[in-house]
Design goal:
The protein is α/β, with parallel strands linked by helices and 249 residues long. 43% of the residues lie in helices and 14% in strands. Helix 2 runs parallel beside helix 3 and helix 3 (74-97) packs parallel to helix 4 (113-125). It binds 3-methylbut-3-enyl trihydrogen diphosphate (IPE) (2 copies) and magnesium ion.
Length: 249
């Protein structure tokens, strides 16, 4: 029996965010190159996008490359940027067929021209997709995103387009790259590390965290279902008491 049957279809997380970690160690454990791990990682993304659609997840955000990852050896960065083009071009027809819209968060200016062009083309082609949204976090870091938002808020205030007294959490959120995207309900990190690595710091304020030792290339449909089932067993209190939550339900 698939774990799929154990999922309560009424309480599926609307937004799942994933820190896809462990490609390098997966490759090393098989005597392969790190780039082989990244290639296998792309296959996992495809499987998980499909599995997420199957359970009705509306938003799936995947952390593909952090701002800090620019510090990796140039050969690995180059391999990743090329792989990104290959994966985007190859997957665009299926995204279109399945009504999946691609969005991207991150500092796209730092990407090689060819990678950025492939990405923008896919975003444009899939913009009409209304079944679900795949958000690629690429050249992304949360502190960078928050600092950029602060900069633009300051600019708007200087130009008198924004009244300082009106700035609150919801106004601030509008200046983040994730505006119009609901906060993640569930954050998954594969690969055994239990840290956030500069990912969606603002947006995960009340997300449920799920850590697994499974390396990303080994993470498949059933692993996603397992995480969702665990999520469904948690009580999200948002600061309230258990009794309050029970009476609301
Ligand atoms: C995650 O896998 C992919 C990226 C960060 C691009 P890693 O490459 O970090 O794999 P490990 O953590 O070294 O095993
Ligand atoms: C986080 O993984 C970034 C991505 C998965 C893209 P890292 O492997 O870069 O994280 P650290 O360096 O171990 O924290
Ligand atoms: Mg890693």
């Amino acid at each position: 029996m698939s774990l799929f049957d154990k999922i309560d279809s009424r309480r599926v997380p609307a937004h799942v965010a994933i820190i896809m970690d462990g490609n390098g160690r997966w490759a090393k454990s098989r005597g392969l190159e790190r780039a082989d791990g990244h290639r296998e990682g792309v296959a996992s993304v495809r499987k998980i996008v499909e599995a997420a659609s199957k359970v009705g997840i509306k938003y799936l955000t995947v952390y593909a490359f952090s701002t800090e990852n620019w510090k990796r050896p140039q050969s690995e960065v180059d391999a990743l940027m090329d792989l990104m083009i290959y994966a985007i071009v190859k997957e665009t027809p299926d995204l279109l067929k399945n009504g999946i819209r691609l969005l991207c968060i991150g500092d796209l200016n730092r990407l090689p021209d060819k990678t950025r062009e492939a990405l923008l083309e896919c975003i444009d082609k899939t913009s009409g997709g209304n079944t679900s949204t795949l958000v690629l976090a690429l050249s992304y870091s949360s502190r960078w995103e928050i600092a950029e938002a602060a900069k633009r808020i300051a600019e708007a205030a200087c130009h008198r387009e924004l009244d300082i007294e009106s700035i609150n959490e919801s106004v601030f959120s509008e200046y983040l790259l994730t505006r119009n995207i609901p906060d993640p309900d569930l954050l998954i990190r594969t690969g055994g590390e239990q840290r956030i690595s500069n990912f969606l710091l603002w947006q995960t304020a009340y997300a449920e965290f799920y850590f697994t030792d499974t390396f990303w290339p080994d993470f498949g449909e059933e692993n996603l279902f397992e995480a969702i089932i665990e999520y469904q067993q948690r009580e999200r209190r948002f600061g309230k008491t258990s009794e309050q939550i029970e009476s609301e339900n």
